[in-house]
Task: inverse folding
């Protein structure tokens, strides 16, 4: 099943002034792959995402994408507070010239996927942290991207909301099989979501370990409590400790 | 228990809550007003000698001679109207000019760097120093008066609009960049909507300043149909303290109303999403 890569980093480095943020990085993600990236704070994980999205250019090397249709999910929900949930979700449709009707139809679909149909007319001010994040995910799904880039999206949530959103995201991935690069601090979250997991060293960041996560999709939240899962998470945590 | 009694019960309880809320908000300032009026009477009758009582006539005389006297009332309401027109026109022009300047400044650092110092100068220039010059250039009519208002009201609008336009979330900027949004789309869909709460803050401050500008301009130009400034000057020259105080109260009212109007507009426009403009009841929910 050798699908074409959706995104490929080849010998990519990035420097900001005299500071090297990344050592040469090579990374390929294919359709249907969910790649988690863990690493110590400030190791350049976010830089990898910004390079992947095209927001910044590499200093050396190339980043090639098979599609420009990329969904970016930020650390915070980053909603427009003056727009309702639905208006936030249709926003990217406005930018990309979708007709109002088309955007509304798609918004209906993604809002029901994240379970927010009833809150479509609410303003973000009235939503909980978890609901704001769901809105943010719904917004990124409107244009049905081929590649999703997640920048520690659930870091600000409480443990219960976080676990629930992990399960929901895993279900979405199981159904849609896009390509995803998911940056996180949480080993548990990284293992639960990923088909492949990469560990990054401290700055200048480079990829120091790689794990295949053998669980098939869809996954049940309970796999977290299986012994194999704990062993795997332990190995990742050890690699992460070595890298820090 | 029938639903109907429940419903009327809820409705009357709500009315009661609304009344209580109103009283909670209205009673303390009303008590302060009462205290001030009592103090006023005290000064008039117990501090001032009878031959100096004209300095602060008691409140009922101001009502009698400044408000119930038809001729004086017509004079003061006429002045109030003219001053309000000048202030309103000045505010509209200051907004158009100030917002456009802020919008242009928000688009490029070099424009901001070029214009910002002059915006500050316009804020720091003593307006009284400019008034004779404005009269010299534009005459003593509407044009000069409105110009005074514009100069005095411009800075808060520029600075608040600019802060708002530049304050949009950088990650939202990233989102627009990812979708190849142009400068115009960015301004229209992100910067201007995000700036609205601060734009209303600027307008509210400038509305009060514009009223001051209108009165100052009128006071110093001193010609043409009288606004509040001319009336204040005239009454004080003639030692008509009742009318003078009535005119002062009218001027205060105009300033308060200007502030209040933009408070209401701001709450209406952005109160449902901006916490700083949300009214008390929304905050408690």
Result:
């Amino acid at each position: 099943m050798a699908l074409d890569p959706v995104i490929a980093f080849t010998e990519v480095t990035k420097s900001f002034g005299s500071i090297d943020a990344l050592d040469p990085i090579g990374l390929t993600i294919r359709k249907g792959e969910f790649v988690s990236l863990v690493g110590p704070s400030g190791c350049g994980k976010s830089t990898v995402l910004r390079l992947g999205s095209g927001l910044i250019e590499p200093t050396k090397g190339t980043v090639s994408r098979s599609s420009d249709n990329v969904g970016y999910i930020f650390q915070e929900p980053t909603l427009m507070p003056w727009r309702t949930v639905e208006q936030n979700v249709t926003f990217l449709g406005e930018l990309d010239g979708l007709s109002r009707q088309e955007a509304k139809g798609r918004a209906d679909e993604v809002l029901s996927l994240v379970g927010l149909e009833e809150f479509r007319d609410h303003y973000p001010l009235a939503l909980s942290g978890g609901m704001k994040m769901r809105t943010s995910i719904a917004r990124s799904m409107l244009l049905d991207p081929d590649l999703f880039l997640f920048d520690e999206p659930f870091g600000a949530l409480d443990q219960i909301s976080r676990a629930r959103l992990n399960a929901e995201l895993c279900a979405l991935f199981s159904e849609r099989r896009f390509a995803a690069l998911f940056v996180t601090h949480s080993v548990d979250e990284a293992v639960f979501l990923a088909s492949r997991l990469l560990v990054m060293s401290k700055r200048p960041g480079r990829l120091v370990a790689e794990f295949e996560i053998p669980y098939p999709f869809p996954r049940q939240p309970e796999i977290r409590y299986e012994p194999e899962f704990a062993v795997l998470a332990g190995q990742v945590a050890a690699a992460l400790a070595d890298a820090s | 228990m029938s639903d109907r009694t429940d419903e009327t019960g809820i409705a009357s309880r709500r009315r009661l809550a609304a009344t209580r809320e109103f009283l909670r908000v209205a009673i303390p300032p009303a008590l302060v007003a009462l205290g001030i009026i009592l103090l006023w009477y005290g000064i008039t009758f117990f501090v001032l000698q009878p031959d100096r009582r004209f300095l602060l006539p008691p409140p009922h005389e101001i009502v009698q001679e400044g408000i119930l006297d038809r001729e004086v009332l017509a004079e003061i309401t006429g002045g109030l109207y003219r001053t309000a027109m000048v202030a309103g026109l000045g505010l509209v022009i200051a907004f158009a000019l100030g917002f456009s300047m802020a919008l242009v400044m928000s688009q490029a650092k070099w424009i901001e760097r070029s214009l910002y110092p002059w915006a500050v100068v316009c804020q720091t220039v003593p307006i009284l120093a400019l008034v004779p010059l404005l009269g010299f250039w534009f005459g003593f009519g509407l044009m000069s008066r409105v110009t005074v208002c514009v100069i005095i009201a411009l800075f808060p609008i520029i600075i608040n609009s600019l802060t708002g336009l530049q304050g949009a979330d950088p990650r939202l900027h990233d989102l627009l960049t990812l979708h190849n949004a142009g400068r115009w789309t960015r301004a229209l869909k992100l910067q201007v909507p995000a700036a609205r709460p601060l734009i209303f803050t600027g307008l509210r401050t400038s509305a009060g300043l514009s009223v001051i500008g209108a009165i100052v301009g009128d006071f110093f130009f001193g010609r043409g149909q009288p606004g509040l400034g001319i009336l204040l000057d005239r009454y004080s020259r003639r030692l008509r303290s009742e009318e003078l105080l009535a005119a002062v109260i009218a001027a205060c009212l105009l300033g308060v109303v200007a502030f209040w109007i933009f408070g209401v507009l701001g709450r209406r426009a952005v109160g449902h999403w901006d916490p700083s403009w949300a009214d008390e009841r929304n905050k408690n929910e």
Summary: The domain at 58-284 of chain B is CATH 1.10.3720.10 (MetI-like fold).
